[in-house]
Amino acid sequence: MAFNSLVPNFNPMKKKDNYYYYYYYYYLIIDDVSIPYEAVINTRNVEAKYKEKFLRSCRYALKYLGIRGTYVCKISETLTRFTAGLLYLLYVSFDKITIAKPFTLSPASPDRFLVCQGYLGSQVSSGIIEHIEHVIRILEVENIKGNDIMEIVPLSCIFCRTFFKYIADTTQRFIDREIQAIQKIQYMNSNPSSIPNTGINLRLQKATERLSINKRIIK
């Protein structure tokens, strides 16, 4: 798993067991746990691997972000009980979370960005970190058995009015965009004549003809 950790924040020495330790925290952590297209085709346990990657990414961010830090992660879905539960844990660990889909991403892709701003600190979220580590251990065992974990927090937490409304509305908006994009791609593939001719093909043809001339006429 690759993390991009930027802007280190040096923490003073702390004494533990007669030794002094230096602690480093970061103001910005960026990660990508989205599911590649080829993984969806070639891997049977895609969802289980995605869950584990997302859990480990969140644990890293909660452990090593400094207070008021920002965590940015590219993810693939937000509305399963498992992912929504993990988002809820981030929701109570940061001042603000945002799910965004910039125009640089394909509108037909399920990928989106999770932006968590204003980290409250590892001391505040220490219990959440321990819970995530516990879930990771259980998930590793259950994956070996071929089982899965469906949720990591009670549904009553996910149905918190403000949190659930934002997640549901945002996800529905992205789904509508994805469906429209897929329908448009399907229509253009079925009706190639409907694609507007911008003249690019004609210009490329003329350029090819000029390059293929044996002798150029210089005036």
Automatic annotation (TrEMBL):
Membrane-spanning intervals of the chain: none
BP terms from Gene Ontology: 7-methylguanosine mRNA capping; methylation; mRNA modification
Localization: Nucleus
GO cellular component: cytoplasm; nucleus
Keywords annotated in UniProt: Methyltransferase, mRNA capping, mRNA processing, Nucleus, S-adenosyl-L-methionine, Transferase
EC identifiers of the protein: 2.1.1.57
Catalytic activity, reaction form: a 5'-end (N(7)-methyl 5'-triphosphoguanosine)-ribonucleoside in mRNA + S-adenosyl-L-methionine = a 5'-end (N(7)-methyl 5'-triphosphoguanosine)-(2'-O-methyl-ribonucleoside) in mRNA + S-adenosyl-L-homocysteine + H(+)
Record carries keyword Transferase: yes
Superkingdom, natural source: Eukaryota
Entry function: S-adenosyl-L-methionine-dependent methyltransferase that mediates RNA cap1 2'-O-ribose methylation to the 5'-cap structure of RNAs. Methylates the ribose of the first nucleotide of a m(7)GpppG-capped mRNA to produce m(7)GpppNmp (cap1).
Designated name of the protein: Cap-specific mRNA (nucleoside-2'-O-)-methyltransferase 1
Originating species: Didymodactylos carnosus
